[in-house]
Amino acid sequence: LVPDRWYIAVIDENLQLEQTIPVTNQAGTDTGIDVFFVHPTVLTQNSIPENIAIADQSDFLIAGTIIAQGGLLAKYGRMFAPRYRQSTGVTYREETDKALQASVIANSYSDVKAAFLNYLTNYNNGNKIILAGHSQGSFLLAMLLRDVFDNNEELSSKLLTAALGGMGYVYAADGQ
């Protein structure tokens, strides 16, 4: 196995390793493309709508999720994945009080937006951008698209794609 590559293990019907598919890891290489990945909810707390402080979140679970879900995008270039005050899954339920829901999600979004603006100011260096996320991460990135990208033609021209999986809707500008 080569150190600068990741591998996808293909397992056969007997649960034996059938083959490995190498994927070049360019997460540390400035290819002219950056990936800004926002991970999904990885919380075990889920009884009330609230934000969980970053210090109270599992580094292991978050790192594993970033690698498992966002890691393949590292073949395109540098990866940036912010930590944020996650909202518990209960926050997104239909029956959750809307004022409380909005407040909790706004806290999560403020962390993601601040991280993105910091990335843009200090690390982007004019590179193209791929936004990617899953579940809560996708929801927060959809907010970022509306808030930061929609009315900024220069920034919008840097956006290669927004891969927003695990959402209940698709975000697109009118007519697209």
Structure commentary:
The protein has 176 residues and is α/β, with parallel strands linked by helices. The chain is 32% helix and 24% strand. The protein has helices at 59-70, 98-122, 136-149, 153-158, and strands spanning 5-11, 17-24, 33-38, 51-52, 78-80, 86-87, 128-134, 159-165. The strands form three sheets. The chain has a four-stranded parallel beta sheet, with helices on both faces. Strands 1-2 form a two-stranded antiparallel ribbon. Strands 4-6 form a two-stranded antiparallel ribbon. Strand 1 and strand 2 (17-24) form a beta hairpin. Helix 2 (98-122) crosses helix 3. The termini are far apart. The model has no long low-confidence stretch (mean pLDDT 89).
Summary?
The chain has a four-stranded parallel sheet with strand order 5-3-7-8, with helices on both faces.
